[in-house]
Structures are given as C-alpha cells and as structure tokens.
Amino acid sequence: MTHVNRLRDYLRHPFWLAIALLVAAYIVFEFGVAYLPPLFGVRSAPIPDSVLLQYLITAAVGILIYVSDNEERWKRFKEPVGTLLVDPGLRWLRTALLVLVPLAVGWLTYSQVRPGVAAPVQLRSIHPAPPTSISFRGRTIRLTGLENPLRADGSIEEDYEVGKRVYYGNCLPCHGDLLDGNGHYAHGFNPPPLAFTDNGTIPQLTESFVFWRIAKGGPGLPTEGTPWNSAMPAWEPILTEDEIWAVTIFLYEQTGWTPRTWEHEGEAGAEGGHD
Amino acid sequence: MTRAATIAFGLALWWIATPALAQDTERGRELYDRWCAECHGTDGAGEGSAAAYMMPRPRDFTTGLYQIRTTANGELPTDADLVRVIEDGMPGTAMPGWESKFSDDEVRDLVAYIKDFSDFFELFGAPEPLEFGDRPGADAEALAEGRRLYEQIECWKCHGDRGRGDGPSAPTLQDDLDFPIRAADLSENWNFNGGGRVQDIYRRLRTGMDGTPMPSFSDLIDSGFMTDEQMWYLAAYVRSLSPPERPRVRDVIAARRVEGRVPAAADDSAWNAVPPYYVPLVGQIIEQPRWFAPGVDGLYIRALHDGATLALRVTWHDPSQSPDPDWLEWQGWVAETVQPAPEAEPTALLPDRLVVQFPTAIPTGRERPYFLMGDSRRPVYLWEWSSDAGAHEAWASGLGTRAPLDGGDLSAAAEWEAGAWTVVFQRPLAAADTATTLSFRSGVAIPIAFFAWDGSNGESGAQMAVSSWYSIYLEEPTPKTVYVSPVLAMLVTAGLGVLVVWRAQRREVEGSSQQ
Amino acid sequence: MMNRERCLTTFLAFACALIVAAGCGGGGEAGGEEGAMEEEAGGVATAMDAKAATVDTATAATVSGTVSFTGTEPEAEAIDMSEEPNCAARYDMPKTTEEVVVGEGGGLANVFVYVKDGLSGMTFSVPSEGVVLDQAGCWYRPRVFGIQVGQDLVIKNSDGLLHNINAKAEQNRGFNISQPVEMETTRQFGVPEVMVRFECDVHGWMYAYVGVLEHPYYSVTGNDGSFSLDTLPPGTYTIEAWHERYGAQTQQVTVGANESAEVTFTFGDASA
C-alpha cells in the first residue's frame, strides 16, 4: 500500500511524470505497435528505428509543452534538476553524469562518423500519383473516372476465369498462389512483390489505378518522384486491354476486396467542396 | 424388433449419415477449383494452365503417387501426410504453404477431395505409417560413418560427391511422367521438397520419394545390411552438406581492404578473411522469351580490394561443366518440358555464363538503371564471363542490346569442381574509359546485380537466372580524422556540463549568502 | 466437433453394414474384389488355392506359334556404359539397346504372348516358386517376362553396385527400391497388368517389362520367335502378343480337347 502511495506521489511530481510518460511512449512504439494488433487478428510490423526516434522526439516535445504550460508545474518540474546540480549529497551522481554523458556523446558521434557499410536508403511508395490518362497500344485511355468496363457487361464469372488464367500464366511466380506477394520467385526481388492480401494495397485503389500499374509496370512509374526500383514489368506488350481488366477482376474476387469507386471519390470531393 | 425393422432402421441411419461425408468432398471441390486447379488441373492430372511454367511439375493426383509420406515405398500417403504438405508447402517447388489461408476443416475437405482423384485410396483404405526409430546423437564419428555409407550405397551416383546434384546419372533422371527431374542439390537443404531437417531426410531415405527416381532404402535395414542408426547417420551427414542456416540475404556486399595484392586464385586463403554473401537468383520472367526453369538458384560472393584493384569471387552450383555432351539430351528435354521452349537449338551445346552488372557511373542520387540490363536512359556496364570465351567487359541499354567493350583491364580465372563454378574477377578500380566504364571508389555503395546461365539447361539470351540490385561497398581504411569529431563532441559536452553545474552552484551560494 | 461427427458417422456406417450383412445372410458381393486387394498377396494365393481350377491333362489343349518380323530391322544403338566401368568390362562388344531382336529365321524375340480373354471364371493356383529378375552387367535379365498375381518376384542384384528398381505401374502400386549391394528383395503384384515397366534411374539404359496375370498361360518368344501356351483347358481364347516397340496384336483361337492350334503374329514396320 505504501509503495503504491509513494509511486502515486512520484507521479504527481511533473518531472517523474514526464519521465514515466516518455518510457511508456517508448514501450508502446517499440513493442505495442508490433505485438498488440496481432492479438486481435490485425497484421502489424515493428516500427523502423529511425521512425521510432521521430515519434519519441514528438512525444518528448509534447510532454515538455505540457509541463511548461503552467508556471507552478514548470517550476516543480525543474526542481529535481536543480537539486541534482547543487545538492552536496548528490555529488557522486553529479560527477558520474558529468563523465558518462560526454562519453556517451563521444560514442554516438563516433558511430555516426566511422565508415560503415550501409545501403543507400531506397524509399518506396506503393501508391504513386497516377496520370490522368495513358497511351495504351497507341490508344489514349483516360484513367480519371474510369471504371472497369468488364463489370458493365458480360459475366463476372467468365472474366474471373480469364483473369485467373492470365494471373497464373504471368503473375504467379512473384505474387503467389495466395496473392500474398510470396510466390516461389518472390525471394529474388527487392523490393518484394506486392501482397494483394494486404489491406493497404488494392482495396485502397480504383481499378483504373490497378490497370495503369499493370499496363505500365515499374518502367512506367512517374520519373518526378523517387526512383521506384520496381521489378514489375510493363504488361502492355504482352496482355491485351481486356486481359488486364480481367486480371484486375481476378485480383479483387480472389482476395475478397472491393475496389474503390470513382463515385465514392466524387462524393468525398463534393463534400470537401461544400465544407 | 424384427429383422426387417432393424434393416430399415439401419438404412435410415445410413441415409441420414451419408450427406455429412459427401459434403466434405463437395466443399473440398469448391476450394480446389478456386485455389488449386490452375496448377493441378480441374481433373487432378497435374495439367493446369500454369503447369507448363513449372519445374518440377505440379503433382498428378490421379496416379495416387506421392513424394512426401510417412508410409512405406509404394504405399499411399496418410491423411496427415497430405495435410502436412498442404499446410507447409513443398520447399524448392512452386507449392506454397496454405496454413495461413485454409482452416483445419478446409484442409481436411481438400484432402478428401484430392483423394477422390485416385481409386487407390478407396481400394486400399487407410495406410499405416512406418515406425521411425528415435534419432541418435550425431558426433563427428557418426558423420564419418554417414559419409562412408554415402559412398558405399552410392548416393553420389545421382547427387554427386559433394551433394551438388552432379552425379554421373543426373543427366538422365526422369520422373514418373517422363519429365526431366534434377537430382536434389544436397547442399541446399532449404530447397528439399520434404523439408531439410535430419528427421525429414531420414524419412525420405526410408520411404523414398514416389514418382521420382529417389528410391526407398528401407530394404537395406530389413535385410540387415545396415542398422536404423546408420540410416540416421547417413541423414545427419546429408544434412551436414548444407550450411547450418539458410544463408541470409544482405543488401550490401562488403569488399574488405587487404594489405598487399588482392588474390587472383580461387583457392587463395585470403578469401577466407571475408564472409560469403548469398544472392538468390530466379528465372527471368519479365521480358520475352521468359524462362521458368533456371538452373542456377543462387550465388555466393566474396569481395576484396587493395586500394588499386577490386577482386570478386563468385561461386555457384551447376551440376554440368557446359558445354558438356553428356547433358545434350537433358538440354533438349528441358526445352520440350518448360514453356516457352528456349530459343536456342537444343542440338547446339551452350556454354555456362555469368554477368556482373554495374551502372556505368556511381549514381549521384538514388536512381539506378533498370535492373534488367538497364534502358536507353540509363545504360549498364557489365563484366561478362563464359565457359567458352573467358571474361570481357560489355555495355547494355536493355535486354538483348549488349555490346562488348574493346580493351579493358578485366581478367578472370574460372574453375569447375564437383558441381560448382568459381570465377575470380579482377579489375583496376580506375576505369580506362570513364564514358562507358565504371570507376570504382571506396566508401560508397555501388549498385551491383547478377545474371547466370546454365548452358546444359538450355539457357541463353534472355532465358537466364536474374537477381535484383544489391550494393557493393569497398571498405576504406579508417582515417585518423574519424576520431576528431567524437573527441570534440565529448569535450564540448563535458565543458557545457561543468559550466551548468558551476553556474547553478554559484547561484545557490549567492542565494544563500543574500539571505 | 468435427471429429465427433465423423466418429459417429463411421460408427453408424459400420453398424449398418453389419446389420445389412447379417440380414442378407452373407451376400456381400460388392466387397469381394476390394477385400482381395487389401489382403496380403500371400493370403490371396491361399484363398485361390482352395478353389483353384485343376485342368484335366487328359483333355488339355495347346496354342503355339511364332512371331515373325517383317521389314528392315532397326539398327541397334551401342550403349555407352563408360560411367560404370565394371559393367562395361563384362562385354567384349559394347552392349546394344536390344529393343528389337530378330533371330536368323526372322523370328521376333521378347514378345509377350498370353491369353487375354477366355479364362474368366477360372482361378489358378499361384506357383510357390518365385520369378527371378536379375541385374547383372547393368542389364535386366530377363528383359520381358511374366508373373502371376501374388507370385513372388525375386529382384536380385548380382552386380554389387547401386541399382534402383523403379516399377512403373498403373493398375498396381508401383514401387521404387534401391539395391546398392549384392542383395535380393521380394515383391508381389496385386492385380493383373500388362505390362509393368521396370527402370533403373541410375543407369538410364536399363529397363524391363513384366506381364502380371491371374493365370499361368503366357510365354515370351525366344530368338526364333516361337511361343507355346500348354495345358490349356479346351475353349475359345483371345491371344495377345505384346512387343515393347510395336505394341499389341490379338487373335481369336478355339481349341478342342487334346487339340493343338497354331497362331502366327507378324510385327514390323507395317504394324508399328
């Protein structure tokens, strides 16, 4: 009981509260993000170290704003620091910090400047901005507002079968039977092939976007952005327009996702306009 | 109850119970048609639309022959065997593991449906798994005994002396459907179809791999020729032919700086100073004609430089020292099996080839040429080696556009031994002609990619094995200036610390004296 | 849940089968064939012995004849055994493929001639003596032979070097066993099948064929192309002659008591 009370007293103190919040933030960013969602069946991945550092800095700034917001709190916050600097009883701790902190800084600097073996950072965006129209086999296709024409007529089952044939004849080795980007050739590519099962991929896209990515592949990515380094070939010379639309249908049918539609986007845009 | 009533009651029960059984295969059929049929065929004969793009081919379920079993040779697999293969997949083939996709019930339904393709399951009923003994410990002596058995029972006839699938019988191996089949490379256990652990290998030795040339060796135990323990030793020896772990793929190949000259010979002990970097290769399936049956599936790279010359030692497994007439039949056979057929005439013996690809200059930004031999905007610079013409430099701006570069200072020494090529390239860091040729510089990551052709496998032109981009980093000697900034930073921090403490204490003293 | 359901189903099915069987007083025809398949081959043999037909030698008939070859004999190709010096050393002349062997009199050897049809309803005892398939000089001996269902096939390695015996069957379960040293292994076949092919994957040139039958009426032609099917019960038979390259031909023949009938087959380019 007394322990709990003492802990509560500590946490009432802004300095220790700030430290506790920072530690809590670290634990959440480092472990919580990676391991909590899977407990509820949601896929997750650890945050990269560089991003983690950014998050922690943001958290620290937030905490500082909070403690300095109130004059009284700010004063109390500074108290332990002041004590550390002057209290004769804390001389040993003070001296130790005066030695250890510069050593740590020295080591950090050394690890930054020593010649290291590191690959250049290769950024990758999954959803680059699509052009409004593309030229496909000499024909101009306007992508904006374009829906999959196969959905308007014919049977989805037939298109699915055609798309399946196309997928298994062309896409399977990389994107895999499970459409999880883990085909038997996937290990040979970096960046790895896209996992259509991932909810950040095709469910966020319109079918015209998917058509564009299949037709133009890695070489057709916009040059103004970061280089994409995608091994995805341009399928324009190999697949017909209908085959690409059919394989698009297959991707959605087989994964169970639904594509974003332009009506939806239009509504969102209209709403934005009215507000 | 009269007899008639009993029968009627029984029949009624039977009639009620039957649909529950039938439902299994019906649900299995739906799953099968949706997820399996494109490879294994709607009729289960292994002739789906994607089958021709695979080597080995998808299983033909109508024969009732299964490679990965716990039952005796020639027997049907148990349900558990089928479940295991569906859930875990078959490494080294196109068969993925489905555990994340299907529930236990779904897998069970699929098994029920797959068994329906062969009458044997109904005729023979549930097979009995073999009794497998416990695995004894394997020390150095046991491994030596395993090696002795490997020689004595002639595993090397197919798998080769060092296990690289280069035995004298390897070029004629065919599976039960008369398709060519490679003797497993026993030094890559991560590709073993039935798993790469000692117990997996032991089981394959006991059961054989039905439908393939791999026989069962159980009769050797039954006949008293060898003991069960010895079979385990053999399995442990086979396991020892592969590295302890599947090699990790790393983005950057570090070229260590050596004192004196870089080694020119493949067996120079100087190479031991650097670890091998593994680069996986896959078939070129992007530009026509594509290639779905690559013979080379990975390279081991070691790199050294001495400040003036870069030396690159590339090793890869290739069961044939092409051009090799013993493999001519195989060459044509692969061409018949895999679609599309190779463009080269199967009657012409093809050489083995390796290409190391660089950009023509160290990229200033992050942009690299297109990994498949570049494009017109950003061409690539190549080190080419072939088993019949040695090494030379070349240049390309897209697949099929390569043009040799005259002169140049690239040299290479190659040797083939026991199913593996080793090629040592050497080139001065500075380029003779910087317009077409890359000048190497230490201290930066330089893009590097690899392409390999196994001539005896019918590979030439675009039909090859490819890697994506990696980096090579020539290490620099640590300059003394590296230590300046850390020392400076330490001094500044310490000074600031002292200053802060000193000021705080002075203020404290002033405060108390004022009181 | 599902397991319980399955247990229940199986139990019910079993119970019903018992009841039905009891009710019908042992009719169970449907299970007959399957039951025999499941049993050990040895068991099949004893079961057959009990009701095996005994052919009355006093009235027995014979069908004999020759298989002759027409056209040009395909040139035999020499086999390169250099990878197996111990085997290569056993031959003065390099071994040839021996796919088509024509005797001096124009007879075609290695043709499997057997009664394909006409014996239904009769069962025959299985010889207790096994049939030997020897691997000697990296060669299967004999190359073409017959065996009865349930009869022992004794596979022998006289070479003392690695052979594997890969039996590629469709009606039977195939097998693939290894014999790396001088040794013998015994196997049996469960159902009739013409032909089961044996291959040695270590030595791509080695193969052999066995015809598996439920009766003993088969013969393999020698270099003179002759065959003889003796001690046949009088009757009408379909005789089939099978050759590894030229395929199969059939003829009908009727033999009365103590009669002998002659049948001739002709294989060659035209029949291929």
Automatic annotation (TrEMBL), chain B:
Residues 1-22 form the signal peptide. Residues 23-118, 141-242 form the Cytochrome c domain. Keywords: Electron transport, Heme, Iron, Membrane, Metal-binding, Signal, Transmembrane, Transmembrane helix, Transport. This is C-type cytochrome. PANTHER family: CBB3-TYPE CYTOCHROME C OXIDASE SUBUNIT FIXP. It comes from Candidatus Kutchimonas denitrificans. The keyword Signal applies. The chain crosses the membrane at residues 482-502. InterPro entries: Cyt-c552/DMSO_Rdtase_haem-bd (IPR019020), Cyt_c-like_dom (IPR009056), Cyt_c-like_dom_sf (IPR036909), Cyt_C_IC (IPR008168), Cytochrome_c_Oxidase_Subunit (IPR050597). It comes from the Bacteria. One of its GO terms (molecular function) is electron transfer activity. PROSITE patterns: CYTC (PS51007).
Automatic annotation (TrEMBL), chain C:
Keywords: Signal. Residues 1-22 form the signal peptide. GO terms for molecular function: carbohydrate binding. This is Rhamnogalacturonan lyase domain-containing protein. It comes from Candidatus Kutchimonas denitrificans. The lineage of its organism: Bacteria, Pseudomonadati, Gemmatimonadota, Gemmatimonadia, Candidatus Palauibacterales.
